[in-house]
Amino acid sequence: MAGKKQFDMDAALDAAMTQFWREGYADTSLDDLSRATGLNRSSIYSSLGGKDTLFLRCLERYAARYGEKYDAALACAAAEPVAALRAFFDVTLERIADPEVPDGCLIAQSAMAIPVLSPGVAEHTRKALGLQRQRLRTALKAGGRLTDQHAEAFAEHTVAVNQSLAVMSRAGASPAQLRTIVGVTVDALSQALRP
């Protein structure tokens, strides 16, 4: 039928997301996106938007996909905050170990690229980091065992550690090294919760 899109939108968005994730925003050209998605440049513009629009869609897709996993991991935070924090980090460590996805984290990589991003894309990247901090703060406050100030501090710290895991994995850190980094944060929370 004339005018009907002859491609799978989800597959195209996943391919574009993987391309941005692997190479970063600045190092991904429209030609790279065309090769990754199998769409020509005009189809990318007409169906997926320009590079900024497509990148935003990919960032939202990534944040939603992993955000659901983080939410599930943190669901037990009110009763078991240490187990929840460990499960939160397990989501990241499983993603890092997954051979089907690029190394690192699209949000961490995007945050490091903020100086070269357009203002709108940079702001969206900051919001993605903020959502993760909010998710953690809410979970850590849920059991009432941490003050607002401590929950905020642990949320801020955990986001920083979580993003650093992605960077460290790209730099060649072993799974054991990454688990050691996680262990320090989990132990710190455990000690903060002791009466």
UniProtKB/TrEMBL annotation:
DNA-binding region: 29-48
Alphabetized InterPro entries for the sequence: Homeodomain-like_sf (IPR009057), HTH_TetR (IPR001647), Tet_transcr_reg_TetR-rel_C_sf (IPR036271), TetR_C (IPR011075)
The protein, known as: TetR/AcrR family transcriptional regulator
Lineage: Bacteria, Bacillati, Actinomycetota, Actinomycetes, Kitasatosporales
Domain HTH tetR-type, first and last residues per copy: 6-66
Keyword entries, A-Z: DNA-binding, Transcription, Transcription regulation
Pfam families tied to this protein: TetR_C_13, TetR_N
Source organism of the structure: Streptomyces albiaxialis
Entry-linked PROSITE patterns: HTH_TETR_2
Transmembrane segments: none
